[in-house]
Amino acid sequence: MIAGKSIQEWKRSHPLIGDLVALKETVWFNPAVRSAEEALRDVKLSADDKNEASARLDRFAPYIASVFPQTVPTQGFIESPLKAIPEFQRALGSRYGLELPGSVWVKLDSHLPISGSIKARGGIYEVLKYAEDLAIANNLLNLNDNYAKLDSDDARAFFRKYKIAVGSTGNLGLSIGIMGATLGFEVTVHMSSDARQWKKDRLRDHGVIVVEHASDYSAAVAEGRRQALQDPRCHFIDDENSTNLFLGYAVAADRLKQQLSSAGVHVDRDHPLFVYLPCGVGGGPGGVAFGLKLAFGDSVHCIFAEPTHSPCMFLGVYSGLHDAVSVQDFGIDNVTAADGLAVGRASGFVGKAMQRLVDGYYTVSDDELYALLALINRAEGIQLEPSALAGAPGIARMLARDQDGYRERMQLTPGILNNATHLVWATGGSMVPESEMNAYVSRGEAILAM
Ligand SMILES: *Cc1c(COP(=O)(O)O)cnc(C)c1O
């Protein structure tokens, strides 16, 4: 029984649950979605909170440039390129047998400096916030200082007295571990069974304590939380509930707005922007979507993508059960090659805050993720990890069928769709070792050849 109903009863009251349980690729556009103005009221955070996060990242830029020389060209900002991908758009159209009007772009968070994934936004931001709070409270720093002074033995010795703990499927641990250890913190990362070996090796090279768990993400997080609670000098980074992580992700939107405008891409009600975001626990895509709605209002449409084996956000929002349900409760195994998305229970905070703001949800099979990985490598020479491809079929899913009456409800006429910009948020991959990347590509090529 799940929330008082059997799985059979759930399938009757919510027909798409049958497809999700059967691991079919599934699409749902949420009829409860409201205008940006109305939906943003559900989020207990404001534009001021997002601006404060942005200002904090500005303050840290001189420090980041000092400790991570690869960020000198961007003046200490951790930001990724935006790129048009017309060859991939053509390849997608022929793969799905569809005409794909508008233009497809990719946001290459896969190539964010320091940790090569979207977690270099939220994860690093929360570590910096913790460091700033501690340093200011202990008179080591004030808001007007040049933060490059934190790149010193004194500062590192100070931070060494404090600890950070986190549970992760890999990329969050990588971001927090590298950033935390660089500042001087003692960092412990609780890794779920999905975590790739190279991510654990890389962290240990940075002096991070890596605890390996045989279980999935939720259990790794629970163990991290339990250990940290016993130690007042330990800050637990709570991926399931953290508003700091969320705000760190949200800052991406204003920067994207500038990039689009520099690239000559116009966004308004008649030139909508569709953004396809891979979703794990929900903080990353949720934070980005929150920022996007603040930046573009009703002109942006956010759609979340998950693996067929881990549709936790889709299931949570569609059933209304949010974090009261896990995919395993419905017999879905949460085993996927998309390790960044291998989450069985969504963040309740994000699902509830965002439920009237995210237009839709869809699932992608692991085979399709691999096929798309090979296809974007062929078409554009871009190398991504499997999780990062979840957003790639989004345009085709949005244009293919409209059993939810979505396009009509949103007044997305053919004329407007001709003017649309579609953005695939590519969330990770540039740090994947070459041998592993070659194996990903061959696997995808084999699927394309079938
Ligand atoms: C973490 C992650 C995501 C999703 O972020 P959540 O906050 O877990 O929803 C997407 N792609 C990659 C590669 C990730 O590491």
UniProtKB/TrEMBL annotation:
Biological process per Gene Ontology, one example term: D-serine catabolic process
In terms of PROSITE patterns, this protein maps to:
DEHYDRATASE_SER_THR (PS00165)
- Write down the Gene3D superfamilies for this protein, in alphabetical order: 3.40.50.1100
Residues forming the Tryptophan synthase beta chain-like PALP domain are: 95-398
Q: Which domain of life is it from?
A: Bacteria
Q: Name one Pfam family in it.
A: PALP
**Cofactor dependency:** pyridoxal 5'-phosphate
**Residues found modified as N6-(pyridoxal phosphate)lysine:** K119
Keywords attached to this Swiss-Prot or TrEMBL record, sorted alphabetically, are: Lyase, Plasmid, Pyridoxal phosphate
For molecular function, the Gene Ontology terms on record are: D-serine ammonia-lyase activity; hydro-lyase activity; pyridoxal phosphate binding
Q: EC number(s) in its UniProt entry?
A: 4.3.1.18
The record, for InterPro entries, names:
D_Ser_am_lyase, Ser/Thr_Dehydratase, Ser/Thr_deHydtase_PyrdxlP-BS, TrpB-like_PALP, TrpB-like_PALP_sf
Q: Does the keyword Lyase apply?
A: yes
Q: Report which reactions are catalysed by this protein.
A: D-serine = pyruvate + NH4(+)
Give, as one word, the top-level EC class.
lyase
UniProt entry tagged with the keyword Zinc: no
What PANTHER family does UniProt report for this protein, alphabetically?
Answer: D-SERINE DEHYDRATASE, THREONINE DEHYDRATASE, MITOCHONDRIAL-RELATED
What family classification does the UniProt entry report for this protein? Belongs to the serine/threonine dehydratase family. DsdA subfamily.
- The protein here is known as Probable D-serine dehydratase
Q: Which organism is it from?
A: Paraburkholderia phenoliruptrix BR3459a
Give the gene name. dsdA
